[in-house]
């Protein structure tokens, strides 16, 4: 048993060391208790990362077989007010602006690959920043919900092909991962599907997912 203080660690340097996409910000935190017994490492407290101009917090963190060949990691993760322009600059999905919150419950990694979680990503409530999504990001999100081909064709036809970006009202994606299948949802129901992006203004683009089960 012991406690620890994590002094601010550069996320760009940490990302490079672990081979992750490079993230801006710092990792820091106070660990009031850390317990190692029966080959399980448990953290009594929160790990806090200040990244993407927002905050990510890990709670109820456990690491089973930390020094063995097949470690298993468990945690609950919350993210608040992540700057989507910084997130989408790090991950090649296309450009999105605005703020994003996330709740990832019962996260389980086996050998550092996800095998289970219940996740919800959604536009930060009350955020008044400019919300714009690019054509590439529209196609990327549409692919998640199973409608990528039709959306890509629509963006290249008619008046839509003259627009590079579109305003949106909200983004929302849910995924419950079980047995290598993601049970999908969005902001709210939309007929036989669900809204992944609810558009705003003219021309208006709504992204509607129609796949309830997606192979992870």
Describe the protein in words.
This protein has helices at 11-18, 84-90, 135-145, 148-155; strands at residues 2-10, 25-37, 40-44, 47-51, 54-64, 72-83, 99-110, 113-123, 132-134, 165-178, 181-186, 189-190, 193-199, 207-209, 213-215. It is of the alpha+beta class and 216 residues long. The protein has a 15-stranded antiparallel sheet that branches. Helix 3 (135-145) runs antiparallel to helix 4 (148-155). The longest helix has 11 residues, at 135-145.
Can you give me a brief rundown of this structure?
The protein is of the alpha+beta class.
The helix content is 10-25%
Supply the helix-strand structural class. Answer: alpha+beta
Number of strands: 15
Q: Radius of gyration, Cα only, in angstroms? A: 19 Å
> What is the ordering of alpha helices and beta strands?
EHEEEEEHEEEHHEEEEEE
Summed over residues and divided by their number, the pLDDT gives a mean of 86
Largest sheet: 15 strands, antiparallel
Annotation field: number of helices: 4
User: Which percent band covers the strand fraction?
Assistant: over 45%
Overall morphology: globular
Distance between the termini: 37 Å
């Amino acid at each position: 048993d012991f406690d620890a203080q994590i002094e601010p660690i550069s996320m760009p340097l940490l990302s490079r060391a672990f081979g992750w996409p490079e993230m801006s910000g710092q990792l820091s935190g106070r660990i009031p208790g850390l317990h190692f017994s029966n080959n399980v490492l448990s953290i009594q407290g929160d790990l806090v990362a200040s990244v993407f101009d927002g905050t990510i917090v890990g709670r109820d963190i456990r690491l089973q077989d930390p020094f063995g060949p097949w470690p298993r990691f468990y945690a609950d993760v919350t993210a608040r007010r992540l700057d989507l322009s910084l997130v989408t600059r790090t991950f090649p999905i296309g450009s999105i602006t605005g703020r994003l919150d996330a709740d990832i419950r019962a996260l389980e990694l086996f050998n550092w690959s996800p095998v289970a979680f219940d996740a919800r990503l959604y536009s930060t409530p009350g955020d008044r920043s400019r919300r714009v999504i690019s054509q590439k990001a529209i196609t990327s999100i549409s692919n998640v919900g199973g409608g990528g081909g039709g959306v890509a064709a629509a963006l290249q036809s008619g008046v839509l092909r003259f627009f590079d970006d579109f305003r949106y009202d909200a983004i929302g994606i849910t995924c419950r991962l079980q047995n290598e299948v993601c049970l999908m949802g969005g902001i709210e129901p939309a007929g036989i599907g669900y809204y992944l992006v609810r558009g705003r203004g003219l021309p208006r683009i709504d992204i509607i997912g129609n796949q309830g089960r997606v192979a992870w």
